[in-house]
Amino acid sequence: MSHSASRTWVSAETKEYEAFIKLRENVFYVAPDSPFVPRTWPDWIAHRLAVKEDAVKQVIMRLNARVAQRKMGTKRKMWPALAGKEFNDHLTCVLMEDSMWTKSIIERSDRPQAPWPCQDELQHEGNHRCKSGFRRFYPLPRVPGNATVNWKQRAPVKQLPFDEVGCPKTAKEAKEEREFHIDDEMFMLIGYALMKEFDK
To answer: Which runs of consecutive H residues, i.e. helices, occur in the chain?
Structure first.
């Protein structure tokens, strides 16, 4: 049997009938005793019309709500995160870790602000970027330099410990992560008797 890439036109009525046949064949496996599944062609058409009418009603309700909101002139109030407070310590707001992704008014003196990667850098390695071990992350931030210098010639900004993601791990590092070390503090908190039960 030969295959081709050409597409065959199918009418909307035929597509709908094929969907009904597919449902009718699978209903015995999915819901054999359900009284809500349409089992005849007229029931299927009535069901599909009811679904479309419900979708239209939902759209009309949303449009009416927007129109009423515009007429009243009220806007939904959006509160900024952390009440708009700006922190200039370059630490993350939740874990208080030193990170390069923190937004701050004052630029760091020890770390230059990396420019956004150019289109060529974003497309470098394309779909094969996942094979390089760095997966499909954005390119590494690079030290700002002369615009005429190729992006490959600029050194990457040194990552902070909190920002290290997507780095390929050696077999030794992966093995160390899998190993679970029980320390004396855990023995004290949980209890020796319970830990011995886990070892059985």
So the answer is: 12-30, 41-72, 119-123, 171-178, 184-190, 192-199
**How many domains are there within the chain?**
2
The answer on pLDDT for 11 being more than 80 is yes
The answer to the question of residue 1 being in a domain is no
Range of the domain at 123: 79-171
Judge if 35 and 103 occupy the same domain: no
Q: pLDDT band for position 24 (50/70/90)?
A: confident
pLDDT recorded at residue 173? 72
Contact (CB, 8 A) for 104 and 86: yes
In this structure, the answer to whether residues 165 and 88 fall within a common structural domain is yes
The predicted model scores a pTM of: 0.37
Provide the phi-psi class of 114: left if phi over 0, else alpha when psi is between -120 and 50, else beta: beta
Mean confidence (pLDDT) of the chain = 78
